[in-house]
Design brief:
alpha/beta, globular, eight-stranded mixed beta sheet, about 280 residues, single chain, two-stranded antiparallel sheet, about 30% helix
Length: about 280
């Protein structure tokens, strides 16, 4: 090959443009098990960055408050030295012989079912619900709206044992406090002017739609008094005004005895319909 040909070949190779860079293909993220709407994420963000209801500060939205009362959440030490949540299935002999109490009283699964009904509701996902728990030992617990309760009872029991011993549960990602034990009495955590109603099959009977229309504001707007429902989380008994003297009225949503989770679904469904939450 001559010098002219080699020089022309080298110059042509130098002038060749570099190959175009291929763009990286974006992989679609996996579907979430429980997807949240943009409004729910924004509402939860406002609640985490703004003032808490515990300080008595006014909130921007009129949230419904629910207290699960008399929940049987007690821990017991097993033979291996580990703590477990006391329940009628695993600790029947312990309840009878050592504690001298009826094993049927120890039903923490009732609280588990009611929490799932509350926190899975569109009312909570839209940022319009605040949940508290009061145990039979008078331990008061606040739950963050973004907390996800375990689906299985075994994992729920382990979470409750951790909460009762460490006094709080934090998210591993951002350190947000999801559950914590707070000071009694419950009344000091209610916003000023809150109307409190107790749930009982012996209370005044309302249809779900009639209850929402008569007792709950027409829309979750600022300036209207908030509403709190006290719902039992025990196997037997009733919510009483002796334990909660601030209760204005005892109400019922069915002429038949219902489980706590069923009553919660009826109440929240009617309020969601009234507030336009789908």
């Amino acid at each position: 090959m001559s010098d002219d040909e080699s020089s022309s070949a080298s110059s042509s190779s130098e002038e060749e443009p570099p190959p175009p860079q291929t763009k990286k293909q974006r992989v679609a993220p996996p579907l979430e098990i429980a997807p949240t709407a943009d409004a729910a994420a924004a509402a939860i963000h406002r609640q985490s960055t703004g003032a808490s209801l515990l300080t008595g500060a006014k909130s921007k939205s009129n949230r419904l408050i629910v207290l699960l009362d008399q929940a049987k959440l007690e821990t017991v030490k097993n033979r291996r030295g580990n703590y477990e949540l006391l329940n009628c299935d695993d600790h029947r002999d312990l309840c009878k012989k050592k504690l001298k109490r009826d094993p049927k009283e120890f039903r923490p699964d009732i609280c588990h079912q009611e929490l799932l009904a509350l926190l899975d509701s569109p009312l909570n996902k839209s940022g319009n619900l605040q949940v508290y728990i009061r145990t039979s030992r008078n331990v008061l617990i606040e739950l963050h709206p973004s907390v996800r309760i375990p689906r299985t009872y075994k994992r729920f029991a382990g979470l409750m044992v951790q909460l009762l011993h460490k006094m709080k549960i934090k998210a591993s990602e951002n350190g947000t406090t999801l559950m914590k034990v707070i000071k009694n009495p419950f009344s000091q955590h209610l916003p000023v002017g809150t109307h409190v109603y107790g749930m009982s099959c012996q209370g005044t009977l309302y249809s779900p739609a009639g209850l929402a229309k008569a007792l709950v504001p027409a829309a979750p707007e600022e300036g209207e008094a908030q509403v709190c429902f006290v719902i039992g989380a025990m196997a037997a008994g009733h919510v009483t005004t002796e334990d909660h003297p601030y209760i204005e009225k005892m109400i019922s949503v069915s002429e038949y005895p219902l489980s706590g989770a069923s009553a919660i679904n009826r109440i929240l469904g009617a309020i969601e319909h009234q507030w336009g939450i789908v």
